[in-house]
Amino acid sequence: MDINFFDKKKKNKVLGTQELLFRKPYIWLITVSITTLNFLITYDLENIGIRYLYYYLLDVITTYMIIEFYAQGIRVLNSKVPLHEDFVKRVTYQFTIHTLSVVVFSILLNVLLDHIFFNGERLSLSFNFYTQDTVLALVFILFFHCLYFGLYLLSTQKTRREETAPQVKVIQGMSFKLLDLTEILCVYTFLGTTYVINNNYKKFVLEKTLGEFEELGSNRFFRANRQYIVSLAIIDSYKSADNGKVEVFLDANGIEDLSKSIFVSRSKASSFRAWIHIRHQ
Question: CA 171, CA 180: separation in Å to the nearest integer?
Answer without folding.
Answer: 14
